Structures are given as structure tokens and as C-alpha cells.
Amino acid sequence: MRSKEFLQQLSAYAESMRAKIEAAFDGWDDSPQAVAERRKQVSDPVNGLAFFINHYFPHYVRSPSKSQLHRYLFERLPKVFASEKSCLEAIAAPRGEAKSTIVTQLSTLWCLVTQKKRYALLVMDSIDQAYPMLEAIKSELEFNQRLRIDFPEISGVGRVWQSGTIITRANQKVQVAGSGKKLRGLRHGAYRPDLVILDDIENDEQVRNPEQRDKLHNWLKKTVLPLGSADGKLDVIYIGTILHYDSVLNRTLASKAWNTAHFKAVLKMPD
């Protein structure tokens, strides 16, 4: 049972997100021609994700320059979502690279507005970390005027709008969970999950214990990877920071079953 204090904190977070989003709306051309052109660019299979993030979320895009990680994500993720086959992607990068914002939040939103996914499951180290992530996605769908103008079919409050699960107006489900939890039998009508994002599912304490590492690794292999339908496509994207040489993320990076990328901190030499 979630405490009253936690729910109040979640509500305050949602309100702060609303203020941030609404403050970013300015100078948006709402003519039918402009809307049609932007929708076309958002749907572009190569550059659509980058266009979507750069134009609809100015409150997150603070600089026109992109890091090596960001350039990789903008190029790789559209290929993953466009592939006819299931993809397993593991990406390691330092803290402070906006991994969660780009992959877990904004890429999920892109999959929703482009109708690429029907059921997304977002997993973080704990459910209390995952709730604010879903709250951020809900806030964009509710209050982002750019999205409301260009994608009215999905924007607004959906028929299910809870702290841990939503179903959008376009009948797409997004659910959050904590790592290591029971996930068997997840369904959205006739659909099983077709996107799982694992976002920093380890923590500094758990990763020190070899038994806990093995337990989480087994959970990844035996619970997460079989979540999709037998005849459908399931994309699993695992992003995080390496916390231990034998962490589950490091083990995954060494697996030939996964497409992997490892980004290290760029150290600037002193003048």
C-alpha cells in the first residue's frame, strides 16, 4: 500500500511537470499544413525520433549539441523499432547522460504517437523510482500543447490513468514495475508486451552481493525475455550505468545474444 505522503509527493511532481511543460509552449504553428508536415517528419523511419524530441520537448532539450550517446540513440533506436525481428539492446553509459529521459520517457512517447507499440513495460530498480517516470509520460500526454495540436488522437487522459498503469486514448498500455518482481501473464487484451525498457535495474547495495546478482540475472533471462507473445515481436532495451565488474549489465554486454554499446565518461584535460 502506497502511503498518503508518497501519493502527495507524486501529485506535487506531476504539478511541477505541468508547469514546466506549459511554460515551454510558444510560437507553435497550428495550421493544418504545418501539422501535417510535422506529423510526416515525426513518422520518418530514420530521423523521426530526433525530430520528435528536438521539436516537442524544448523543456528537455537544453543544447543543440549532442553527445556521442545521444547520436547513437537517435540512430539506433528507430532501427530497433522498425525491425521485423525482436531486438535485444544493451547500452551502458555514465550517470548524467539523460539516458532515462531519452530512452525510457521520450522514446516510449514516440512509440505511442507513431503507433509502433501497443504495450510497453518500463522497469526500474524499484517501483517507487518507476512511478515518477510514468507520471512524466502522463504529464506530457495531458499538458504538452504541441502534442495535443499535432496528435489529438492520443493526447489527453486515457481510459486508465493510474500511478502504475495507463491505457491511452489510442488503446496503448504503458505499465511500470520494479526489478526482480513477478511479471508473468501480463496482457493488454489480446496483446502481450512488445516493448520492455530496463532502466538502471541494479543498485549500489544489491550489486555487491553475488547471490543477488545471480538472482537478478536469472530474472532477466527467465522472466523478462519470455514476456512477448510466441509469434510476436518483443524489443528489450536495457540501459544503465555499470556498478560492478560482474554486474548484470556487464554480463549482458558480454552476451552475444544482445546488440551492445558501451559509452564512457569523456574526461576533459585541465588547461
TrEMBL record:
Checking InterPro entries in the record gives: P-loop_NTPase
What is the name attached to this protein's record?
A: Phage protein
